[in-house]
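Extended Data, panel c. Modelled sequence:
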Amino acid sequence: SYSPLEPHDFSFNHPSGMCSTCEGLGLTQDFDLDKIIDPKLSIAEDCCLIAGSYNTVKWKNIYNNLGSLYDFDIHTPWKDLPVKAQNQYLYGNRKKWTKMRFVHPVKKTSWTEYIKWRGVISEAKKRYNEAKSDVYRNKMLKLMHETICPDCNGSRIKPYPAATQLGWKTIHELTSMTIEELHSFFQKLKLSPFEEMVGHDLI
């Protein structure tokens, strides 16, 4: 169930209203695949510039598990991988946990890990957001481009308040209109007494 909406829920400057992904900006920085992927290399050959290296215990195990779980060969050049395999590597899945079997390359011991797998892009963004070094952040920025936030679609607020409608239009749709379009919309708008009471402050 949802709690009643308050005025601050519609503000992209307020913590309870702003989209948590873009922090109320409506835009995010996303990695440019053409800049971070070498299509001739495979995952095992570290085809992705921003991904954890296959030559480490953690990432070798994760990539091997992804190949086994989603039926693709991590030694296949990127350009020849199925799109589903590429997406699983880049963007992960929505599962709460992905069960993986890890093996130590030297000790040969094995154990089970439960990984929240959201893909190498998500991992790289996390490192970027947590980075203290301006040199590192500037280096990463050169591999990125600005794009509309995928979670709020540019509305800048959370999904719940963003779904609120006035005359079958969301607030984001209304604020995207020209002055002429808005004038025409409000001239034709007909509300019930209850709807007028609810929408009074906005109107």
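The first strand starts at residue 27 and ends at 31. This feature is highlighted in the accompanying rendering.
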